[in-house]
Amino acid sequence: xxxxxxLREIRVYFILGTLTILLITAITLQLFLxxxxxxxxxxxxxxxxASLPKQTTATKVNFLAEHLTIPREMSVIKLTPNDIxxxxxxxxxxxxxxxxxxxxxxxxxxxxxxxxxSANATLSVDIxxxxxxxxxxxxxxQEQKGLxxxxxxxxxxxxxxxxxxxxxxxxxxxxxxxxxxEKLSEGLATEDTQKAKYIELIxxxxxxxxxxxxxSQLASLKAITDYADEVLSLDLDLNVNAPWEVEFEGxxxxxxxxxxxxxxxxxxxxxSIGKPFNSTQNNLTINTLTVTEAEIVYFEDIKETNRLVxxxxxxxxxxxxxxxxxxxGIILPIINNFEFVVKSPNPKP
Length: 349
Prior knowledge:
Layout: H1 2-37, E1 43-47, E2 62-63, E3 68-69, E4 76-81, H2 86-95, E5 103-107, E6 111-117, E7 121-126, E8 131-136, H3 140-146, H4 151-163, H5 180-189, E9 198-207, E10 210-225, E11 231-238, E12 245-249, H6 252-258, E13 277-279, E14 284-301, E15 307-320, E16 323-331, E17 342-343
Antiparallel strand pairs: 1-4, 2-3, 4-8, 5-6, 6-7, 7-8, 9-10, 10-11, 10-12, 12-14, 13-14, 14-15, 15-16, 16-17
């Protein structure tokens, strides 16, 4: 009996000792977490498990309880917020672009985990263990290299530069500063991609001292955007019948060099802005023309062929057949054959 009694006493002391150790550990951990929370830092233990560029650091992440901004280079990020709860989890999910209600996954070990899914990302929040895991399914760098199809855009632009009468001696499509994809992304990021009809590129260099914007009409466009409306992937096709447009601003000086002879055999000739312009076809004469702005844009020629043709609008004070008008429209298709028509849509009395 004595041996049995001692064995029972040993078991009791062992159990009591184990419980005491667990209690002390729990109290210590609670005090540690409470003290840690007083630092005022909302997010702790930042773990980034994606291959990031050297310049990308954790400081680029905006750690706020009500909002979370994740750089586009980060495909996977794991955070341990010390005060995450259900309301904050839902607010974070909303800010990250998840509109639907979360799926609740129950686990004996982990407890309940809230899971959000979208076409290009997943977000899971373990409130019990204070863990948030965000994964962007579509990797930005891979999409940029893989799905972006700009061959036809570049080919069309080169063809335009070769065939046009405009002076683009300083224009180099291979210029490393001329990032075609980035320019397209910037233009599409703030627009409804379903309504976008044009590519618009701003060439980093100036021609004759003035900035140049190139445009071309799209036949089709497919863009995938993330929660911040940043273009992740872009697949486009140019309208083969739509040439590139040019939009430029300045005074009379650049146009003396840019605008060249147009279709001399029709008696239509323009040597330079500011000099008399004679059109034997329309019997019109521009006596004086002060240019303040010019741009080539598309308009629809409904009466004739229902086709889009590029039009050069010269805005300024113009005298045309003794009538002062605000705008002269010049039809200028940039494909081999050139037409040149002067009209006065807004004549002044």
